[in-house]
Amino acid sequence: MSVYLDNAATTPVCPQAAQAALEVMTEGYGNPSSGYAAGQAAAARLQADREAVAQALGCRPEELFFTSCGTEGDNWAILGAARAGKRLGRHIITTAVEHSAVLEPVEALEGEGWTVTRLKPDKTGHISPEDFAAALRSDTALVSMMLVNNETGAVLPVAQCARLAKAHNPQLLFHTDAVQAFLKLPFTPEELGVDLLTVSGHKIRAPKGIGALWIRSGVKLPPLLLGGGQEQGARPGTEPTAQIAALAAAVRAWTPEDRARLAAVKAYALERLAAVPGVEIPCPGDAPHICAVSLPGYPAEMLVRDLSDRGIWVSSGSACHRGKPSRVFAALGLPKRTLMGMLRISFSPATARADIDALTGALTAVLRERIPMR
């Protein structure tokens, strides 16, 4: 039986989410924009599901807009905020360790004449608030800083930087990609002090293909798509009611005990990994579900294959890199041999100590059988 330790890439769908999706697809399949009974029943369920997700996020339902994924939410937030705020200036602050769904829209804006400051992390993946404060300019119109890094597990100082940004200019817009933080850390958008916040369903045991963008009341973003009045006219297209129902079910199924289980199994993993000769832990991570370790001198992709052959599934970084070297790990400035052997390990509430024991046993076997590169 395989041991799955790549939950930052995606999570298995929980039974409650799968059942909710099936119910809507087979019984509650009405279009929520239709005026007859089946459509109105679908609209009522859609509203109840929106309220459930909003309650978990700590926001008002009318501030929550469903999207197809975290990538769409990030793109909409950044491109929409840039268009809405360009009268303030054409300077963006972000970090060098953001997800590609943030960095690529920022690069597109840079091609249109915007200037961009990309804050560099320290060797554990953290960003300095002092560096952020120094980067603020009179023409800064947009900030995008993720809450939890998807490869290092580092928690970035979003709340502190948002306070600095708003003190500098209350009108600039602050976006955070909270895809890896939602339900894993306690926060609300209000506590963070941000204007825009992205979440994704498949990181919390909902299916792929559903996410949400929180837009602070009073902020008006132009839509990415045109055609239709759904989502208050901001995100047209018939709502994917089955995926939304599954997202709400996954949210309802999450408990405080799940967060505690994550933290406990990660602590056990770090203890066991530190005892494996040859393993380094450059990024223990602050979030309860992600850490990054290294086997210096061993190519990461080889390690991923060797572990997979032994039934252990981990990654060498974000799944969005598709086998390319991790840009995030490269930004940490680690020694070349350490960087070569970086692996991301990420947990779910279902991860057991036996899974960690299987991982450390497999790593020990790989180190015994393979000769490191010089």
Give a short synopsis of this structure.
This protein has helices at residues 15-26, 37-57, 70-85, 100-111, 129-135, 158-168, 189-192, 241-253, 256-274, 300-309, 327-331, 336-340, 353-369; strands at 3-4, 64-67, 91-95, 115-119, 140-144, 173-177, 196-200, 211-215, 280-283, 290-294, 312-313, 342-346. The chain is of the alpha/beta class. A hairpin with a 6-residue loop joins strand 9 (280-283) and strand 10.
Low-confidence region ranges: none
Instruction: State the domain count.
Output: 2
Strand count, sense and barrel status of the largest sheet are: 7 strands, mixed
Head-to-tail CA distance between termini: 34 Å
CATH hierarchy, class of the largest domain: Alpha Beta
Subunit organisation of the chains: single chain
CATH fold group of the largest domain: Aspartate Aminotransferase, domain 2
CATH architecture type of the largest domain: 3-Layer(aba) Sandwich
Shape call: globular
CATH H level of the largest domain: which superfamily?
Type I PLP-dependent aspartate aminotransferase-like (Major domain)
Q: Give helix % range.
A: 40-55%
Average pLDDT for all residues: 95
Largest sheet strand order? 2-8-7-6-5-3-4
Secondary-structure element pattern, one letter each: EHHEHEHEHEHEHEEHHEEHEHHEH
